[in-house]
Design goal:
This protein has 608 residues and is of the alpha+beta class. The protein has helices at 57-68, 72-82, 89-92, 96-118, 122-128, 135-149, 151-158, 167-193, 203-225, 248-266, 290-306, 313-316, 318-340, 357-363, 376-403, 411-429, 438-441, 447-460, 463-470, 477-506, 539-552, 564-588, 590-598, and strands spanning 11-15, 22-31, 36-40, 46-50, 54-56, 271-274, 285-288, 370-371, 374-375, 518-520, 526-528. It has 3 domains: 10-58, Roll (SH3 type barrels); 202-474, no CATH class; 475-607, no CATH class. The strands form 4 sheets. It has a 5-stranded antiparallel beta sheet. A two-stranded antiparallel ribbon has the order 6-7. The two termini are 37 Å apart. Its EC number is 1.3.1.70. Belongs to the ERG4/ERG24 family. It is found in: Cytoplasm; Endoplasmic reticulum membrane; Nucleus inner membrane. Pathway: Steroid biosynthesis; cholesterol biosynthesis.
């Protein structure tokens, strides 16, 4: 068992996790089981560090003195040679032509020296061709790299014995060189770290298959809902003629809807806020006017209904609308990938920069693709698909009344429309909260999000309403009250948990959040261990699942098809939870392990 090296209260130099920077810290305690020192930084941050990440103050002072002084005898001798008192005064006075000749000779000597150092050898040529290199070749390449970063310092060494400049100026030049070299090394490391190393969704093969599986799943669900007996045993459903799946008029209506929402997005109404800092430290600006867009859309739909526009047209051509949305999302994804090829390294998504075309195309290569100030990902995340979901539900309600000759929609249809309307309105009212989600901060905008926002959300999330049109289900008022209560519980958990997280991320020092306790991390952020986030690790997912169940219950239990959304949602959230766990463990390290010990349950309390 190793002996303890640093004592409590001792001032040392501690390395900041994930960097090469050392800061002065104070040792507060030592854990003999894990052999970790708890140290406290000057700003009050406490972290657990290994002994290898701690240095004594004296060692840093010694290094500093060595780096700041270099061969005093050599400097003194160079000064004595350059200013020899025995040299006649006439020797120091030169004509201007002699001085120019002397400078030309010095430049020529310097250039020859530089060329000799920079001349590529056969070994270096072999290195760039991908062949293995020996230690000697490493030394040569190191010399070339040094020469590239330090063009005038070699000149200074050649002319060291002839320099008449003060030592302070030389020292200043060396400091500038060191800063430049450190900056170049840091940039090289950052570029290498931006590459996506761990592939999700089954890697290249998995993402390639998902690009076919996702559209096939949507079309299968819609075809099954049209059947008289939508049992999963009736597979495959009868396929429609291919020419019936495409209609130019339907595609035109979809384009009109998309660009109408884009027009609402560009209106100068609503506040402009800053997003979270990017890897470059820059913050993007976003206009928060999604709720206004919803109000304008509701007014436009009201005008259409007033002039007796048949909104159930959406129900009659539902499959064609899904095909049109899928075709548009594919075209948008191709455009996004081509545009991302012109993006800088800092603008690429951490999850979509693998270097594999199919994988990056699926997950999204660029993090925040924009056309001017128009943010494509942020716009598609809430506007066309989410508001379109509500419009589709309304079309299904009107279709049910027309097909079944009802003066009022069924209680089941009212519940489904009401619950999902609440969910959409909440998302638009709290639009600013989406800026802290992984969709915005981590995931790129590619086929996965484009298809999900424009196809999956409006056409799969409205599955319950679409099912009820062809398979009406009667429920009693007590059952409706119980389902409503269940939805309210799920919504309360979902909204209060998200509000706690978003407010804490925005301003941890807010006096309104004084009751919340957190664990400090090396990134400067805290992990909440009280409130909903001290109950389970992902309470917002728990609320999502409860609400999804409440949306499906009005469809009864005759078929499992309306519960596809619940099954899908559980699988999706478990996948997201696993991804969040992996991401947080890498990001927060020991702090995340301490958090998991404090909060052992992931989504379901006392179960999982």
């Amino acid at each position: 068992m190793p002996n303890r090296r640093f004592a409590d209260g001792e001032m040392v130099m501690g390395r900041w996790p994930g960097s090469v920077l050392y800061y002065e810290v104070q040792v507060t305690s030592y854990d003999e089981a894990s052999h970790l020192y708890t140290v406290k930084y000057k700003d009050g941050t406490e972290l657990a560090l290994k002994e290898s990440d701690i240095r004594t103050l004296s060692s840093f002072k010694h290094r500093k003195s060595q780096s700041s002084s270099s061969s005093p005898s050599r400097r003194s001798s160079s000064r004595s040679r350059s200013r020899s008192p025995g040299r006649p005064a006439k020797g120091r006075r030169r004509s201007s032509s002699q001085s120019r000749e002397h400078k030309d000779d010095r430049k020529k000597t310097i250039q020859e020296t530089n060329l000799a150092l920079m001349k590529p050898s056969e070994n270096n040529n072999r290195r760039y061709n991908g062949e293995p290199e020996s230690t000697e070749r490493n030394d040569t390449s190191h010399m070339i790299l040094e020469q590239k970063w330090k063009p005038d310092l070699e000149t200074e060494h050649v002319l060291e014995h002839y320099s008449l400049r003060p030592r302070k100026e030389e020292k200043r030049k060396e400091e500038r060189y060191s800063e430049k070299k450190g900056f170049e090394i840091t940039k090289t490391i950052e570029k290498a770290s931006l590459k996506t190393k761990e592939l999700e969704f089954g890697g290249r093969i998995g993402t390639f298959m998902l690009m076919f599986l996702l559209p096939a799943t949507v079309f299968y669900l819609l075809l099954m809902c049209k059947q008289d007996d939508p049992s999963l045993m009736n597979f495959p459903p009868p396929l429609p003629a291919l020419d019936s799946l495409w209609e130019a008029r339907v595609f035109g209506v979809f384009l009109l809807w998309f660009f109408l929402q884009a027009l609402f997005y560009l209106l100068p109404i609503g506040k402009v806020v800053e997003g979270l800092p990017l890897s470059s430290g820059r913050r993007l600006h976003y206009r928060i006017n999604g709720f206004y867009a919803f109000i304008l859309t509701a007014a436009a739909i009201g005008i259409l209904l007033y002039f007796q526009f048949e909104l159930h047209y959406v129900y009659d051509h539902f499959m064609q609308f899904a095909v049109a949305a899928a075709a548009f999302s594919l075209g948008l994804s191709i455009y996004l990938y081509i545009q991302s090829l012109r993006a800088t390294e800092e603008e690429l998504a951490p999850s979509g920069n693998s270097g594999y075309l199919i994988y990056d195309f699926f997950t999204g290569h660029e993090l925040n693709p924009r056309i001017g100030s128009f943010d494509l990902k942020y716009f598609c995340e809430l506007r066309p698909g989410l508001i379109g979901w509500v419009v589709i539900n309304l079309a299904m309600l009107l279709a049910e009344m027309k097909i079944h000759n009802q003066s009022m929609p069924s209680l089941s249809m009212i519940l489904v429309n009401s619950f999902q309307l609440l969910y959409v309105v909440d998302a638009l009212w709290n639009e600013e909260a989406i800026l802290t989600t992984m969709d915005i901060t981590h995931d790129g905008f590619g086929f996965m999000l484009a298809f999900g926002d424009l196809v999956w959300v409006p056409f799969v999330y409205s599955l319950q309403a679409f099912y009820l049109v062809g398979h009406p289900t009667a429920i009693s008022w007590p059952v409706a009250a119980a389902i409503t209560l269940l939805n309210c519980v799920g919504y309360y958990i979902f909204r209060s948990a998200n509000s706690q997280k978003n407010n804490f991320r925005r301003n941890p020092a807010d006096p309104k959040l004084a009751y919340l306790k957190s664990i400090p991390t090396a990134t400067g952020k805290g992990l909440l261990i009280t409130g909903w986030w001290g109950f389970v690790r992902h309470p917002n997912y728990l609320g999502d699942i409860i609400m999804a169940l409440a949306w499906s219950l009005p469809c009864g239990f005759n078929h499992i098809l309306p519960y596809f959304y619940v099954i899908y949602f559980i699988c999706l959230l478990i996948h997201r939870e696993a991804r969040d766990e992996h991401h947080c463990k890498q990001k927060y390290g020991l702090a995340w392990e301490r958090y998991c010990q404090r909060v052992p349950y992931r989504i379901f309390p006392y179960i999982y």
